[in-house]
Structure prediction request, 287 residues.
Amino acid sequence: MKRALLLPLLATLAHAAPEIIDDVALRSGFEKKLGSIADQEEHPTAKALSESLESIPTGTALPAGAERTDEAPESPADAVFLIGGVYKCGKCEHWHLSSVATAWALSRDGLMVTNHHVFENARGKAMGVCDRHGTVHPITEVLAADPDADTALFRVAADGLTPLPVGPTPEVGTGVEVVSHPHNRFFMHTFGRVARYFTMPQRDDRPSVTRMSITADYAKGSSGGPVLDTEGRVVGMVSSTQSIYYESNNGQPKGPLQMVVKNCVPVAAIEALVAAAEPEEATAGQR
Prediction:
C-alpha cells in the first residue's frame, strides 16, 4: 500500500524538475552559430542595422498576415531571446559575441521587439537572436524604431516562433514579472509590482516621455526584456535603471547605494510602434 502511494509522488516530483540554464554553453553556442551566419555575408551588418535607424519610421503598420496572438504561452521564456552581434578583434580569426541584450517575439513569423538603444549601440558583422534551446536566427531588418520611446520593431529570418500577447495598461500596484538576461545570467525570471508612472524630463534634444517604474529586478543585459502581467501579457519593456546614493545630489555615485529604480517603456509606447494605420484586414482575427 505504501509503495502504491509512493510511486505517483515520485512521478510528480520528477515531472516538476526545473529547467537548468547553462549560461556558458548557451553563450558559446550563440557566438559560434552567429559567427557561421556572419561568414555567409547574406544579412545586414550591425552597422547597417544601426544606420537604418536614421531613415525608418517611429511606427508602422504590421505586414499583412502577421501572426500575433491573444494566448500567453505556458512559459514566457519560450518567447524571449538573447540578442547580440559578432565581431572579430583583429588579433585572432575567431568571432566574438558583443554585449547581449534581450528581445521578445511579437508574431509567429519573425517580428520581434527590443529597445532602440540596442540597435543604436550595435556592433559587429551580423546580428541575431538565440532562444533558450540554442536556436539562432539572423536579423534581416529593422522595421520601425522610436528613440524617444526607446522601442524597436525588427524581423528575423524565422517562422513558427512563440509570440507574446500585448495586454492593457496596468494600474499602480499590479503584479508584474520580467524575463531577461542580467549580465549573462540568461532567462532570469523576477517578480514585483508596478511602482508608478512618471514623466522623464527632457534631455539633450529629446522631449519628455512617460515611463513606468517596477519593483521586479533586472540589470544590464536586460534591455528589451518584456514586463508581463499575471496573465502573461506584455504590459511594458525594460529600458534603464537609476541608482540612488545617499550622499549624491547630482546622480554621481557617492556614499552608500540606497536603491536602484527600474524604469520601463509603458505598453502604450509598444502599441504605438506597431499600430500606426494598421490595416483592418491585417489584424482581423489576430488580436
